[in-house]
Design goal:
By secondary structure, the protein is α+β, with helices and mostly antiparallel strands. It is built from five helices and eleven strands, in the order βββαβββββββαααβα.
Length: about 220
Amino acid sequence: MERDGDIVLRISPERLEIVLEQQKEGGVTARKNISPEALAGCILGSRYDEEARSTGLLPEGCIAAVMEDVNTTYFIRCPDLYADISYYGTEYLHFPIPRLVFGFQYLGKEGKVGSCRLCVVKDGRLTADTPTYHYPFSNVSCGDGHICTGNNALPAYSDPLRLHTLMGYILRLPNNNDHFLSAHNRPHLGYRDLLELMKDKTPGFYYSDVLVEDGKTLKTFLNGR
């Protein structure tokens, strides 16, 4: 039985109407027709959303984070401009690299990284409008910057604060010709020739003689496109 003061919502599809009924003292029932817009406004106005949702401590070098229901994507600027890489059995130690930004989709409940992306940015102060470049080497999709790690298992991370160490791990993975395009470097060199050209150069040489802009910006990369 309805209690005094309760408000009952009655929706009649046949009559296409919404009626509010309220029981008052003395057994009197008050009725009022309302519009769907009024009902929607009432429901939306009564919602309670937690306004603050903390990211917690961010990984070292993190420039942005996107929090979703089951994962958080951390975007981390790589601090290094040199890395130890390999290509078909040849090691290139202390090899120059352009300025990179990585995106790691972290699955907190599972304590692992679901996917990895990267983009090449200008070496300087970053803004949303900072232009990005094609990654000149391999294993990175030219579409969304997705990194192909092949059969290499990514390390588990119980704490996202350690995610900055994943950048070096990925750069040390063996390189092949997957996703490599000579059109993504200005001299149009093959992979081996490009490595030989760059091994004695400084990172600045990428920006003066090698990198090709992809027509996108850092904002585009952060938005996952």
